Amino acid sequence: MDAAFLSTWSWDNLGAYKYVLYAPLVGKAVAARAWERASPDHWLLLLLVLFGLRAFTYQLWSSFSNMIFATGRRRIVRDGVGFDQIDKEWDWDNFLILQAHLAAAAFYAFPSLLHLPSWDARGLAVAALLHVFATEPLFYVAHRAFHRGHLFSCYHSLHHSIKVPQPFTAGFATPLEQLVLGALMAVPLATACAAGFGSVGLAFAYALGFDFLRAMGHCNVEVFPAGLFHALPLLRYLIYTPTYHTIHHAKKESNFCLFMPLFDLLGGTLDGQSWELQRKASAGVDDVPEFVFLAHTVDVMHSMHVPFVFRTFVSTPFSVQLFLLPIWPFAVVIMLVMWACSTKAFAVSGYRLRARLHQTWVVPRFGLQYFLPFAKDGINRQIELAILRADKMGAKVVSLAALNKNEALNGGGTLFVNKHPGLRVRVVHGNTLTAAVILNEIPEGTSEVFMTGATSKLGRVIALYLCRKKIRVMMMTMSTERFQNIRMEAAPEHQQYLVQVTKYGSAQHCKTWIVGKWLSPREQRWAPPGTHFHQFVVPPILGFRRDCTYGKLAAMRLPKDVQGLNACEYTLERGLVHACHAGGVVHFLEGYEHHEVGAIDVDRIDVVWEAALRHGLQPV
C-alpha cells in the first residue's frame, strides 16, 4: 500500500548522508565569503548559524531531560526511553533541513529580506501580537483537525506512537505536519517584515524561542514550581507546562494548544486534572531502584557515552568517533571539576526488569585513576557513599563494576562489608557469573588451557574449576607461593592438573588461552595459529594476530522482558551487559541474602549459571 502524500521524508533512504542536503547552502556561503559583512550572501551565514542554534536548543533540552541524577524526581512519565523510541526519533531533525531550504528560498524570492536591520523592537511587538492572535488559534484548529480520521491515521498517529515524550519527539512528525507548523511559525515573522519592522534579531529571537518552548513541553520533566501558578492564577492560561503537554500525549483528546492553554479553555478541551497533576509532578517523588550497578568510565572519550550527552550515540556500542573530538576539551574541564567537587556517584540510566527498577550509577573516576596509589582512598570513599546511599534508599543489591571491585582497591568489596556489618543492601562483585560465562565458553573436549592473571580472584576460581574437570591448567605466575596456595585448595586427586609456568613459550602448543593480564603483541606471538583468547582483563587486549580469534569480555543478554533499556554498556551490543552486571541481576532476582564479595566460591559457579539461564539471561 502506497504511503499517504507527504507522510514520509523523501531522503529517508540517505541515512546520515542526508546532511549533504545542506551542501548547496554551505557551498554558496563559502564561495561568496559569507562571513564577511560586505558579502551580499552574508544572510546565508546567519541562516546556517540560526539553524545550528535551533538544533543545539533541542540537544540542550535532551541533555537536561536525560539527567536522571538531576531531574529524576520530577519526571512525568516514569517509563524509560527504549531503543525502539530512539530509533524512531533518530531523524528528528528532518524538519530543520526542510525549513532551512524553505527559508533560503524565501530570501531569494523576496530580495528585500536580504537587507534586514540587526534589530527593530517594533517587530518583536508585532510578532508577539500575531503569535497570540494568529499562530496560537490557527495551530489549535489545525491540531484538532490532525486528530480526526484520515489526518490522524495517516499523519499524526506517528507522533502519538511515542509513549515517553522527549525534546526530540517535538521534531518527530510527518512532512505535512512540519509544513503546516512552519507556515504558522512564519506568519508573525512575515507580517513583521511586510510592515517594515523585520530584523535579524527578530528572526533569531522568535525561532529560538519557539523551539525552546516546544522542546520544553516535550521534555518529560516538570520545570515550573506549582507555587508560581498558585500566586499568579492567570499565568496557567498563558504558558503551558511539560505536564500539560504530556497529558495531551496520553489522552489525545485534550490540551491541544501550542503554548497557551487559554485556547483549550475557550475550545472546551482543557483537561480538568492538568493543574493537580502539574502540582504533583512539581513536588516530585523519588524513584527508588531495587538494583544498582555501580559503574565507572574508562577515559575522557568514554565519559561522553551517556544518555545526557548524545542519546543516539549511547544507544550504540562505544567507539571513538570524530564528532566527539571538538567537545573533548569541554569534557576534560568537566572531568577536572568532577574530580575536585564530586562526592557521590550519580545515576545515568535505568531500565525495568519484572516491573522493578534497575539503575546504573557512575562513580566519577576514570580507569587511569584506579592505578594511582594516592587516589585509592578517595575512590573507596565514593564507592562507600554510593553503597550507603543505596542502603538508605532501600535498594536490595549494589553490583560493583570492573575496577570498582579491584582486589587491590577494596578486596573485591570486602572492605565495605566489614566496615558496615549492618548493611541491608547486598554488595555483589558478580564475578561468580563472570567465571561461569568464561568457563562455559571453553569448548567441550579441551584438555589443556594456558592462563595469565592466574592467581587473581577470577584466575584462581577458573583454575580450581577446570582442574575438577581434569583439564590441565598452565598457570602463568612468578609467585610460587601464591600458586601453591591455590594448588592446595584443590582436592589431592586434582592437584596434578595445576601446573605453574613462568614463560610464555610454555604455551606455544596450547590453543586455548584465558587472559587475565594484559598481553603485548610480542607475548601474543607465542600462541600457535588458531588460538582463541578468552578474556577477563580490563581493558581487553588488542587483537594483533590475524590467525587467532579474540573473545570479548564476558557478557550476557538481558531477559526479553526488559523495558526502557536505552544505553549500550561500553562496547557491548544492545541488550548485552557485562557478566558482573548480570551476576548482580541474578543475585537480585534470586533474592540471595548473602554478600558476594572477596574470594569466589567455586561450588557456586554452576548454581549461579543455572539461575541465570532460568531467569532468561542468555549467553552471547
UniProtKB/TrEMBL annotation:
Swiss-Prot/TrEMBL GO biological process terms: lipid biosynthetic process; response to stress
Domain Very-long-chain aldehyde decarbonylase CER1-like C-terminal: 449-619
Residue ranges occupied by any Fatty acid hydroxylase domain in the UniProt entry: 129-269
EC class (word): lyase
Subcellular location per the Swiss-Prot or TrEMBL entry: Endoplasmic reticulum membrane
InterPro entries: CER1-like_C, Fatty_acid_hydroxylase, Sterol_Desaturase_Related
Known partners and oligomeric status: Homodimer.
Location, primary (coarse class): endoplasmic reticulum
The enzyme's E.C. designation: 4.1.99.5
Listed transmembrane segments: 43-61, 96-116, 123-142, 179-208, 320-340
GO CC, one annotated term: endoplasmic reticulum membrane
Presence of keyword Transferase: no
Reactions mediated catalytically: a long-chain fatty aldehyde + 2 NADPH + O2 + H(+) = a long-chain alkane + formate + 2 NADP(+) + H2O
Molecular function GO terms recorded: aldehyde oxygenase (deformylating) activity; iron ion binding; oxidoreductase activity
Name by which UniProt lists this protein: aldehyde oxygenase (deformylating)
Membrane topology: Multi-pass membrane protein
Lineage: superkingdom: Eukaryota
Keyword tags: Endoplasmic reticulum, Lyase, Membrane, NADP, Transmembrane, Transmembrane helix
Family per record: Belongs to the sterol desaturase family.
